Amino acid sequence: MNTKTLAAGTVVMAAVSSLYGQASSMDSPSTPAWLSKTFGETLPKALTDGKFSLNARLRYEHADQVGLKAADAFTVRTRFGFTTAPVNGFQAMIEGENTRVIGPRVNYNDTQGNNIGHTVVADPELTEINRAWVGYSNWDTTLKAGRQRIIHDGARFLGNVGWRQAEQTFDAVSLVNKSVENLTVNYSYLFNVKRIDSSNRDTDTHAINLSYTGLPIGKLTAYAYLIEFPNGPVAVRNQSSHTYGVSLTGSRPLSDDFKLSYLAEAAIQSEGRESALNYQAEYYHLTLGGAFKQFSLEAGYEVLGTDNNVGFYTPLATLAKWNGWADAFLLATPGTGLRDAYLSGTVKLPFGMPLNVTYHHYSADIGGSDLGEELNVTLTKKLNSNFSVLARYAWFNSSTAARPDRDKFWAQVDFNF
Questions:
Q1: In this model, does residue 286 exceed pLDDT 90?
Q2: What is the pairing mode between strands 406-416 and 370-382?
Q3: Cβ-contact 247, 153 below 8 angstroms
Q4: pLDDT tens readout for residues 245-262
Q5: Domain segments of the chain as ranges
Q6: N or C: which end of the chain has fewer CB within 10 A?
Q7: pTM value surpassing 0.85
């Protein structure tokens, strides 16, 4: 052993001995009481009373789009996290996420430049930190800083894209305040978007959402999403937009067996400061539904408007939830805008299996030309408190060459603990 190694070892042993001596004397009279309590009681209790979480999703997806080879993706996604118990209002959470392909890796376009000739299945292999935040709760207020999941309302403008194997989360500071009765104030400042392909997108976004539940007719919500993308290609920067809107949602029982539900929403959007575009587009969404025993039916009409051949942008939304599961309109609203008239029905089958069938008819907002139709079917079953299974099918019949015909099928098993 040379002299430098011996000297280094002596220093390390001395440091360890010093730390051990400090730790062993933590309860000595010279140690401040708050320090002794913090390291001797509070922090250990935050860890021992914390909660581990585990989610695993095994999925098979078949996707077949005209002009491309059919895709078959068999993937498994796991998330493992730990959330500390609250300590004087403070709390922390960390969660890792991993997606792996089972079987052949050459039969689907994973959005990473692999198998370009196949239909896209946006579930690439990845390992990443999905969430990592610290928070503080007090005075009817919760403040979080770090990578977190943020979902506003139905995730039409801000959501986590929870349908894909890797979800969308945000590096952000968020605040939720409920100090005024019936009023919830949501504010988030987003500075990075961790996307479903594990890429990161710089942003400078303010998201404001105020909801009031004190009205007899339902929940009134007002929102502003001031989205800016300061870096990246022109197409990305042009998605910078300022959106202001209001919505009313509610339900009302008309008898012991029948309940009416409704939604009315309107918004207006213009370009952000990082955008080179010049436009002002409108958004409308109306739904009317009813539930009778094990049956429910809903009719809806959603309009994403356009101006100067620029369609209404929703770059931070849970897009897979809207305008059909076949993803025909996933990447961008057409320059002519989009009208989505849909009818959705659900029946609760025996053994606790809800079956949902939804039909969409799409047309342009400008000119009203036919853009296609789509049928969505999903069947779910919750096996117990931990396991659930799902089967889903989407069929899209196009009326334009710009959006080819396609169909998709999913079968999956979810485990939550």
A1: yes
A2: unpaired
A3: yes
A4: 999 999 999 999 999 999
A5: 52-416
A6: N
A7: yes
